[in-house]
Amino acid sequence: MNDIKDWYERPHPVTGERYIARDEPGYVDIPTFMRCPRPAAIGEADIAFVGVPYDGQATERVGARQGPRQIRDVSTTLRAINHATQVDPFALCRIADAGDVRLPRAFDVMDTIEDIAGFYRPLKAAGVIPLSAGGDHSISYPILKALAAEGPVGLIHIDAHLDLWDTYLGSRYHHGSQFRRAVEDGLIDPKRMIQIGLRGAQNTREGWDFQRELGIRGIYIEELREIGIEAAVEEARRIAGGGPVYLTFDIDALDPVFAPGTGTPEIGGITTFEAQQLLRGLRGLNFIGADLVEVSPPLDPSGNTALTGATLM
Amino acid sequence: MNDIKDWYERPHPVTGERYIARDEPGYVDIPTFMRCPRPAAIGEADIAFVGVPYDGQATERVGARQGPRQIRDVSTTLRAINHATQVDPFALCRIADAGDVRLPRAFDVMDTIEDIAGFYRPLKAAGVIPLSAGGDHSISYPILKALAAEGPVGLIHIDAHLDLWDTYLGSRYHHGSQFRRAVEDGLIDPKRMIQIGLRGAQNTREGWDFQRELGIRGIYIEELREIGIEAAVEEARRIAGGGPVYLTFDIDALDPVFAPGTGTPEIGGITTFEAQQLLRGLRGLNFIGADLVEVSPPLDPSGNTALTGATLM
Amino acid sequence: MNDIKDWYERPHPVTGERYIARDEPGYVDIPTFMRCPRPAAIGEADIAFVGVPYDGQATERVGARQGPRQIRDVSTTLRAINHATQVDPFALCRIADAGDVRLPRAFDVMDTIEDIAGFYRPLKAAGVIPLSAGGDHSISYPILKALAAEGPVGLIHIDAHLDLWDTYLGSRYHHGSQFRRAVEDGLIDPKRMIQIGLRGAQNTREGWDFQRELGIRGIYIEELREIGIEAAVEEARRIAGGGPVYLTFDIDALDPVFAPGTGTPEIGGITTFEAQQLLRGLRGLNFIGADLVEVSPPLDPSGNTALTGATLM
Amino acid sequence: MNDIKDWYERPHPVTGERYIARDEPGYVDIPTFMRCPRPAAIGEADIAFVGVPYDGQATERVGARQGPRQIRDVSTTLRAINHATQVDPFALCRIADAGDVRLPRAFDVMDTIEDIAGFYRPLKAAGVIPLSAGGDHSISYPILKALAAEGPVGLIHIDAHLDLWDTYLGSRYHHGSQFRRAVEDGLIDPKRMIQIGLRGAQNTREGWDFQRELGIRGIYIEELREIGIEAAVEEARRIAGGGPVYLTFDIDALDPVFAPGTGTPEIGGITTFEAQQLLRGLRGLNFIGADLVEVSPPLDPSGNTALTGATLM
Amino acid sequence: MNDIKDWYERPHPVTGERYIARDEPGYVDIPTFMRCPRPAAIGEADIAFVGVPYDGQATERVGARQGPRQIRDVSTTLRAINHATQVDPFALCRIADAGDVRLPRAFDVMDTIEDIAGFYRPLKAAGVIPLSAGGDHSISYPILKALAAEGPVGLIHIDAHLDLWDTYLGSRYHHGSQFRRAVEDGLIDPKRMIQIGLRGAQNTREGWDFQRELGIRGIYIEELREIGIEAAVEEARRIAGGGPVYLTFDIDALDPVFAPGTGTPEIGGITTFEAQQLLRGLRGLNFIGADLVEVSPPLDPSGNTALTGATLM
Amino acid sequence: MNDIKDWYERPHPVTGERYIARDEPGYVDIPTFMRCPRPAAIGEADIAFVGVPYDGQATERVGARQGPRQIRDVSTTLRAINHATQVDPFALCRIADAGDVRLPRAFDVMDTIEDIAGFYRPLKAAGVIPLSAGGDHSISYPILKALAAEGPVGLIHIDAHLDLWDTYLGSRYHHGSQFRRAVEDGLIDPKRMIQIGLRGAQNTREGWDFQRELGIRGIYIEELREIGIEAAVEEARRIAGGGPVYLTFDIDALDPVFAPGTGTPEIGGITTFEAQQLLRGLRGLNFIGADLVEVSPPLDPSGNTALTGATLM
């Protein structure tokens, strides 16, 4: 316990006094994620926040490359203990801000997939669970390449869109195809994959066909409204089962009034309260990582989309 | 089928290659409504999008004259096939963008009513069903003058306000009186008229009195919350019946969080999901036209109000 | 009746014609609250709108000092008669805009508490019921010092936060401690106090402890979703009972999509429709005053947060 | 002197203490123009601020009807004594806020022209000099109808546009023709009329022709840059001469970076510093009134355009 | 003359009446560039507006892919005849809106360069002069590949940045290297190249070295302020000479207050008035095309940056 | 040289590879000021960026407490080498981000003055030159208390306001009196003090009187326009002389179009180009520290005010 407290309580570089940055008012200090330490080496952390400032595979409006910056910024207003759980995560584990993935070849789609995957491999090797912020949704694919290298994992996928489409604008890799690629590459077990909140219209039927043919469970918004969040949680737990599972949350699963700052908003989505219920309901699963993607700051300068994203994380 | 495909697949003026504009990314190309063709003559179309850039009868904050422009702009991100219906409307009929109504006497209320009605008469004569975007809500009156010239029609009216008031600021014609005028002129059958989503406060009781006296069915927001959308749909179908019916949707029926860009927002409104359910539930009625009004771009530069409007259309 | 009409119908200083300012279009005239008169002396009014432009005890983002100005501005679009009640409050009582509390020592926390309390004492003496707009939530404490001087009153408190915390940044007085102070000072009877909409996370547990130890009834958002608004209303009426009661509404009780313009937004809150139901359900209680606080205009230049606030008032 | 001080120092309706509203922080109190008194009758004032919330003759983007409201709002941050002149206008004359012109027939162009003129006649009769805020620029015409009823006056007109065009959209009266109409009606002496800051492009040449044929002096932006503000001031003084003169300032004379909130911005305009020099240079002329028009709040929610307008006033 | 008038005056698809779209109020009609016709085939036009909705080579904040859309939108408020020149370009030549370049391989940098070049070749073959709107500044390179295929041309380059840098993020092709590539490929004659408005800081010196070594004339902002616009115009005319010359205008040459909506703003830039003087001063040169780039709508939702861009075009 | 390079080139906590954070694209990484290191102890740095997130002495619109956060954010787009000087400051000295001043007693004006002063004393003791970002302008007073403890220093003060006023709202200490207090306390030598850019109007004359009586040199905006920046620079160098001098820059010295995000904007100010000239002209003086204050993010969510501020720093 002592050394968890030491993890967060560090000396100020000017005055030398030890203090917990998270306890300052929200607008104070350099914005690491929830003002967690950014350690010299990541190995001592239990959980690491990672930013992936990349939107090179977005098909419509861009800007999600600026997402990690804004999520860090607004995350500093968040507090530790939720009334419902009365759990203080900062008393239980060492959370670090691992900084951003470096992207030295950002203009090339295939090179960047490799660069992102390469960043996650040492985290996995060190046993640090990554909590990532995008960037566009394509980043889930290289993350899974690193984390699911030893065999397919389960996937809980909360989104307005299936992201199971095929080639677009000449590329097999884009932010609407990443889970098709991940299934094809054996990174995801389609029988342990569930998609919740689906509703986006499309110009072709190929994504819906792929979903049906591989037996991926999809809870469309109409079914979700019909059965309620609690039943959706149970279904997700049943599908994901006890094995390793990855969680991916596209902010556009939310209704655009809750998350206007995203590239492809779809009206008629879930509320933040429902998203909170959904995520809290998944506690206890064997998560190997999670991401929250498609927060696009230029499309919501108020930061409210990012605040929602940060709170959900 | 072939000639419907030909309708949408047209040659590029520079390269000559045939392509479907709607399949490009949303930010590409000149924004006709959903990037439908703007034909040289409207007669070949089945359905025509019409803009009515007029807010000269608005009583409070103005700006709806800019609505058609912004609705066209954001409509280009919409896609064709909805997962729920799996219907592709672009495979079934020829939709055109007929441009905007011309308003050469916009400073005069009565002349403009005549100009708008005059624009819709050739559409009706050609058997083209108009799907109109306002503009303030007063435009429904001249549209009905053209479309219901042969006798009263049914009206499904989704709105926060009754729009059954009488003279205001010295004028019998304004965006709060158009359906009183239409009933008085025999364009609407009050027994086949239903109003859904009502809730706006007023300074006099005359509108409520008119509604009650003529037997117009009103579903106020409290009743709507009580009975649910499905029952409201059934009631609307019962009231409208099998005859010709016109659909009019004031964007302020939605709660202001879904549609901030409107002149007279009223809190406590319906959600976009409910609006989608409502509209989908009305399929199969004998619609002679529809409009979506009161999208006011200066009051929502983000375009999200317009996006909602365009999606509902 | 006549003299109530005279209260609102006053001569224009230029033309001398008598008119009711409230009947003008919303953008016309100097924005007093709902364009009520600002009398030369307040004693003749039944109810007085009071602005408290003070945010000197806010702990995070500031700006609520500008709240009264923006609430007045948007209030001029509101109309008198609600369809549900068909009651016209302006036919029943004389409402005045009493202007803003003067704050000649605004840099000093203790002096300002005294200045605010001093402003409300003549209102109480004259039997005028104050309807106040903040400002940060700390203003409820000096208001209660004036209104509850003769003994503890009941409190209906709608908020995302408990505001029962203790010292912060070295001060016992701030916008998260005002009701702890008011209970300690005997201004509030904790047995007649209810808090609705609670959900904000915290860094310490002291507020929750205080609530439980003093037997203050808290309806957290999860319980509220479980039991519904109607049951919450009944519970509030039961707790408040027949004695004098004060109503305090922190705009952050609402979900941030309904009220983005506030200093400490918390996702997952109530809707404006629910807030309306809640407030209408409380009619008939023995209210000695009410306030609406934490509307922060710089954080929502659209004015929609203020419009929501004004409508709820 | 004493009674000028009494004019501004008035008792608070609640506490009774006498105070000068203008000395409060800018965000405090009901926003009359610069927090001047709104007297029960206007006759005692020397100068009266008048709002004309009308944009019914605007040809492009509307919203100027909301101008007086926003100008009042931001005017409360202005202070009395300018360092350059060291003159305190509030020590020299009684300034009143006369409220807004009433517009009971706002949908009719000709009726409204008469209503506005009718409002200014008692002001002229009482010897009160009106300082007006638009509204669109058409309001200058009815104001001149009242103020120049006895014979043509001089006009100093600062604007990007000539406003000497003829019929548009079927109307001879609109916000681009008002000075052509005023010259034709003998309200303005074209030989004593000067236009400064002109630059807007047009689709026809009729305005330029009218200007040249009647000998109206125009200083286009290129000449203004060539000769400098000082020479323009001298030219304006020479043209206007010693007789009665009216000053009209269209906010779009300024470059759009200084005044984005206006309906027809034209790039390449003057700076606020230049505008200040220009206006200060005109002191001592025999002004019978002045207006500032075309501030359109929906197009600049920040209020900076209005602040600029209020400062210039 | 007649057939130029016929070019612009076309029948409305609904009413059949002939009208000139450009003469309607600015908010009316489908926004082609300045509401020029979009012909079925481009060959009959003299000048063609082309949109290049591409920002795949931007290094910092993105969004310029949405530039052509917004420039078209605001261009419809522009009018034909400038007071200074009294020339009506629409009376002299047929201007078309050629739509947007199609980008079917947008995720690949090299393929897209080829696709853009391929679009301009038929325009050059048909003798149509292209006036292009970006998109990021990288688009000038493929345009020059098409237009300067027969030998190096002169370049007048107005920009805050040199765009002569080398490899960045692993790519030789990006929006800071396009003119280095064009010089290397023999598309530009460095002796006939001039850069005006330069001021951006950099992390390496390679761009400045390249400029100096190849003898490219650079007018940095300090020199521009020293010598004035007129002298800069003369210098540009001297450098460009009588041969074919291309004009490229990066909106970030302007000070950010005039053009906030751009990816890499640099304070201390030129004004729009200066830009207008500069461009007007270049008339009569032998232009083979021109572009205006880096207008990024998500960074300026007001559209004022785009309006400035459109006006300059 | 080597160890300066080592200062900036540090290993990534995940991959271990050494890299210079400043060379990444601007949106990457945790935003320390210009992505300088935040060392464990400050003593090794030559210059330290310090944030002072405090606006508790602001008299009008607040929000400057959020200034350091936003300045850090936008500073990451800045690059090292300016073309004019060709100097790379990062090759010459070790710059650190020292984080924010801690403010554990932020509600009390006098305690906070002491807390801020206490933070700067160890910096002075270690010989680190502080470059501070406010916060409201009151922070200069405690900074000077620490840095000028041994005797009065010179002051170059760029501002729209004198900040030499006396008591306001009952407090001698506020963001309009700090330099009066500093002169009175012997921290500033009034003969070595110069104020540039002055223009704000006031309600009393006491500030101007103090300035004149103590012989403080003031260059008002009119004189500045008259004599030009170069002469102002010379005058500032002459007044400041060779002794230790402090530089303080209130962002409202700039015209509001360059810096809308500030609490008390005054039209008619200097341009960013002039500010750059001014600051570059002061190089070589014996600076003991500098600050840039009054950047208020809620009043300019675009970040352009902060970008301007960061660039000037």
| Helix percentage of chain A | 25-40%
Mean pLDDT of chain A: 93
CATH class division of chain A: Alpha Beta
> Looking at the chains present, what oligomeric state does this protein adopt?
homohexamer
Number of strands of chain A: 10
Largest interface: A-F, 44 and 44 residues
Helices and strands of chain A, in order, run as HEEEHEHEHEHEHEHHEHEH
Low-confidence stretches of chain A: none
How much is the radius of gyration of chain A in Å? 19 Å
CATH topology of chain A: Arginase, Chain A
Strand content of the residues of chain A, in percent? Answer: 15-25%
Category from helices, strands and their pairing of chain A: alpha/beta
CATH architecture of chain A: 3-Layer(aba) Sandwich
List the keywords.
30% helix, two-stranded antiparallel ribbon, Arginase, Chain A, homohexamer, alpha/beta, 10 strands, 10 helices, eight-stranded parallel β-sheet, globular, 313 residues
